[in-house]
Write a structure and sequence with these properties.
This protein is an alpha+beta fold. The protein contains ten helices and 24 strands. It has three domains: about 5-105, no CATH class; about 125-310, Jelly Rolls (Sandwich), CATH 2.60.120; about 320-389, Phage tail protein beta-alpha-beta fold, CATH 3.55.50.30. A hairpin with a 5-residue loop joins strand 2 (about 130) and strand 3 (about 140).
């Protein structure tokens, strides 16, 4: 290592020490920001190396960053300040210095700034949905004012300020004996919450819908979903709650569970957090205990307790957790950011990732975490994400 590199290494370590003690100046923080984004010094310390050597060094560096940062419990969903981002950058600085490779080599020729401009045009999802009333009237919940939207079957339908739809008995309400059904449809890049007439709560993920009666009567409470939903069911032993999805039925009395039933996924996954549920599909039934997941396919119902509950409900809690295979992970990203995913080669579902990140973050931040493995790369082309090895 040259004397210039040694001096630069010492300089970075000094800044890191001051940052940890809270004494770093704004100018020093800007210097670290510029270095982390890949400044002119990248090329300065890459001189004399072949392209293959640069790529090998980069892969080793990123693997170390991934194992040290993401496997040592540094959840990105908790990083919500610029100061914390700098600390993460400095963790990367230490590892890079330790490897003797103080540079980021750009594998493709498109500049970071160009990719960032494209990424900035892809906004993360948010609260958006369409409510269809029993008479066929459609209400765009994004545009509707907060407050009462309609009255049906003696139930008042109200939109709240925090993105919820609430069904409750109207003061003058005379309930009808014939059930009237409403549907909430969440588009790509959307999410919504609802409190049903019995007090049960439901969270809808992107590209999902729920059809339900405005008031529950008779011997059961039955709803139908498409896509993914999380339920917290109000207890009523005399009136079981049933969720239908793609031929499967989940029966509960009072419990918390998640159903993932997208048409483009290979299995329907029902995960139980509290209480107990019974899964029925094509004459087959299976009881679940808390912490178990039922995976329903064309051939059978498989039950497993080897499931990451935090990963299952990450979407409902507002973040991505990378604990699934490549295709399923990219499906989640596509639904939330409203993008098309294109694979240069057949998807390698043996790849494993680490880390967590808020769903409010820029799509480039999300893709960067996955790229830290050094085994996968992404290129943004308009609203398309090209997946490359």
């Amino acid at each position: 290592m040259s004397s210039n590199q040694e001096e630069y290494k010492k300089h970075l370590l000094e800044i890191m020490t001051r940052l940890k003690s809270g004494e770093a100046t704004e100018a020093e923080l800007r210097e670290i920001d510029q270095w982390y984004e890949g400044s002119a010094s990248d090329e300065k310390y890459a001189d004399g190396m072949s392209n293959s050597e640069k790529l090998q060094a980069k892969a080793k560096m990123l693997q170390r960053i991934n194992s040290r940062i993401y496997q040592e419990a540094v959840p990105l969903r908790k990083i919500n300040t610029h100061q914390n981002l700098r600390k993460m950058a400095l963790a990367a600085v230490l590892l890079v210095i330790a490897s003797g490779s103080i540079f980021f080599y750009q594998q493709n020729r498109q500049s970071k700034s160009d990719q960032q401009i494209l990424a900035n045009k892809i906004a993360p999802g948010g609260n958006k949905a369409i409510l269809t009333l029993a008479n066929g009237q459609k209400i765009n919940l994004n545009d509707a004012l907060n407050g009462q939207l309609a009255t049906q079957s003696g139930m008042r339908i109200t939109k709240t300020a925090n993105g919820q739809l609430v069904y409750e008995v109207a003061k003058d309400g005379s309930s009808e004996t014939t059930p009237q059904y409403n549907t909430i449809e969440v588009p790509v890049g959307g999410q919504w919450q609802a409190i049903l007439a019995d007090g049960s709560r439901v969270w809808l993920n992107a590209l999902s819908s729920i059809t339900f009666p405005t008031a529950f009567t008779g011997k059961e409470r039955r709803v139908e979903i498409k896509g993914e939903a999380y339920f917290e069911i109000a207890h009523n032993k005399a009136m079981p709650f049933r969720v239908s999805s793609l031929g499967q039925t989940v029966e509960v009395l009072g419990t918390h569970f998640n159903v993932m039933a997208y048409a483009d996924e290979k299995v329907i996954k029902t995960t139980l957090l509290e209480g107990s549920v019974k899964i029925s599909d094509g004459g087959r039934t299976q009881l679940l205990k808390p912490g178990e997941q039922a995976q329903v396919s064309a051939n059978n119902i498989k039950v497993t307790n080897d499931v990451d509950i935090e990963d299952v409900v990450a979407w409902k809690n507002g973040y991505f957790k990378f604990a699934d295979n490549l295709e399923s992970t990219m499906n989640k990203i596509a639904r939330w950011y409203d993008v098309e995913v294109v694979y240069e080669d057949k998807p390698d579902n043996s790849l494993s990732f680490g880390g967590e990140v808020s769903r409010t973050r820029n799509i480039r931040d999300v893709l960067n975490i996955m790229e830290y493995t050094g085994k996968i790369h992404f290129k943004i082309e308009g609203r398309r994400i090209l997946v490359k090895k």
